[in-house]
Design brief:
Layout: E1 12-15, H1 19-30, E2 36-39, H2 42-52, E3 56-60, H3 68-79, E4 88-92, H4 99-106, E5 110-113, H5 118-129
Parallel strand pairs: 1-2, 1-3, 3-4, 4-5
Helix pairs in contact: 1-5, 2-3
Length: 138
């Protein structure tokens, strides 16, 4: 996959395979002052992380090719010894007892349940990257 490297180090990476959720995320992220990239599976998320060095990753958990937990683990393994750690927010419809713990154990920093709440996504991004990097639309 080819990525626009002009946004390296200054973007949001979102991994989501559902087209409706992609549209919601696209509209939500377009409101921010930060560029963003939306990919469709965990493998593309790992490739995007490597190429773009994003400020934050929004990671769906149930995806084809490589699921979100596998992608989080792969990113965390690649980060070992680098002194860097990208914040990862797990986005999931899995809201059963133990799901949050499972995702945090995999290496997620945040746990957000679906359906996607645009205001919550924006608030979480502002919390992670700082309010100076996002427009206040709440």
């Amino acid at each position: 996959m080819n990525f626009d490297l002009t946004i390296k180090g200054n973007c949001i990476l979102s991994a989501e395979d559902n087209e409706v959720n992609q549209i919601v995320l696209e509209h939500t992220l377009a409101e921010q002052d930060l560029p963003f990239v939306i990919v469709s599976n965990g493998q593309e998320a790992v490739e995007g992380w490597e190429a773009l060095d994003p400020l934050v990753i929004l990671m769906d958990i149930s995806m084809p090719v490589m699921n979100g937990i596998e992608a989080i683990k792969a990113i965390r393994e690649k980060e070992e010894g680098t002194g860097k750690r990208v914040p990862i927010a797990a986005l999931t419809a899995h809201a059963l007892s133990g799901d949050e713990e499972r995702m945090m154990e995999a290496g997620a920093d945040y746990y957000l349940t679906k359906p996607i709440d645009p205001n919550l996504i924006i608030a979480k991004i502002a919390e992670i990257v700082g309010p100076q990097s996002t427009r206040a639309i709440l």
